[in-house]
Amino acid sequence: MSSGDRTREAILEAASELFSRDEYRAVSMDELARCARVAKGTLYHHFGSKEALFQALVRDRSRRMLEMLRGVIDGRDPVDRKLRSLTVHTFMFFVKYPAFFRLWEKSAATGPCSRTAPFEEMRRRLREMIQTVICSGMTEGVLRPVSPDTAADVLFGAVMGAVPRCLELGVDDPCTLKQREQLFDFVWEAVRARPQREGPRRQASVLTEQPGMTGAAPGGAR
Questions:
Q1: DSSP helix/strand/coil, 185
Q2: Which of 74, 104, 157, 177 is most open to solvent, judged by the fewest CB atoms within 10 Å of its CB?
């Protein structure tokens, strides 16, 4: 990474921290420069305005995540490994960029505007990737017949619920790695196809489920 790239990344990370912590209008270019430890002129050299910096931040993080996940979707791995990669990579991405995760969550609680639109587009594309794998798995008989929308909600909701517990630990902490594996176990048990011998147990569980709810049991893919 060149010196210019390192400076740009430092500015983006500072912006992620400040925008996730404070209201957008309260964040000044002076404060952004101080947080990034760069001169104000350097900040304007890389980003012409606060709005340009905010949009660049969302585009950069979105591009990194979506390119990583697109490689998973386009690969030749079987469905269970693709689903695991989608779950794990999404989880670990947000743990790696905790300030961006907080900004992501903040955008979800904000009414629609020009600054939340990029997040909505990122959510849409993530859901489409998940649904692509789910549909492929159902076609192959690896995943049980479920609504792709519901399955995407289960996976994405599980990831978003698990990330906050690991934000202060970092990507290499043993507790984070354990949480990562347990997260996939939960997702896999929610959507995997049951062998015929599991039919009676599954039938009994269906009787106790409420409409629209997806059950999950502990365990993992084998």
A1: helix
A2: 74
Q: What is the pTM assigned to this prediction?
A: 0.79
pLDDT digit string, tens, across residues 32-41: 999 999 999 9
Stated as kind and residue range, the H or E segment containing 197 is none
Residue type, 197: R
100/118 Cα distance (integer angstroms):
13
Contact 99, 20 (CB under 8 A): yes
> Could you give the 3-state DSSP secondary structure of residue 39?
coil
Sequence-distant (≥ 6) Cβ neighbours of residue 39 within 8 angstroms:
33
Q: Which residues contact 61 (CB under 8 A, 6 or more apart)?
A: 12, 16, 97, 100
Tokens describing residue 33: 């420069």
Domains of the chain by start residue, with CATH: 1-48 (1.10.10.60), 59-208 (1.10.357.10)
